[in-house]
Amino acid sequence: MWLAVAVGAAVGAPCRYLLDTWLTSRFGRWLPWGTVTVNLIGSALLGMLAGTALVRPVNAAVSALLGVGFCGAFTTASTLAWETVALAEDGWPARAVANLALSLVAGLGLSAAGFALALVW
Known about the structure:
The chain has helices spanning 2-27, 33-55, 60-74, 77-89, 93-120. Helices cover 87% and strands 0% of the residues. It has 121 residues and is mainly alpha-helical.
């Protein structure tokens, strides 16, 4: 099981870095779009994985690979927190609130949407 987690993490972390770097170069730092995006994608993927597990058996190694390994390394709560605080400390409290609200509300929505999609898929 630990090997599945390690392989998933070995793929998830570089994917996060590359997507974050690319989005930051495209859209700048008005909001931390890279972190927002990886967390939203991860929320949808975890919702789909949970929904799938509810309606059909999911191999434990697949759950470890995708859920714990990939999504665990791909998403990042600590960076969300750090970037939100940094926006506020840099004099952008409205951006800090927008970053947090967007991440939480859209993340929950996409998780629920992924869950629902897996139920009907």
